[in-house]
Amino acid sequence: MKKSTYNLLTKIPIYGVLLKQSSKGEMRLCSPFLQDLAEEGIRPIEIYELLEEKYPGEVVTRDRFYEGYNKILELKFKQEINKI
Length: 84
Prior knowledge:
By secondary structure, the chain is mainly α. The protein folds into 2 domains: about 30 residues, no CATH class; about 45 residues. The chain has 4 helices and 2 strands, in the order H-E-E-H-H-H. A two-stranded antiparallel ribbon has the order 1-2. Helix 3 crosses helix 4. The chain is extended.
């Protein structure tokens, strides 16, 4: 990727998401929301895997992402209740 393109892409917010370059030279999406998920112990890949099972091959919309997020929260809550 050209340096000028990289410089431009890393400064454009896309729906609250910024592009950052990882130490391996890959472009990654960074979001404050994804950071919040990590603090709650939820990995976004878990949400995408759940949605892929339910909606195979379909596009993940914001509404579906939150549907998956809520389902993961529900499952984690049930696990916590069962531990008690």
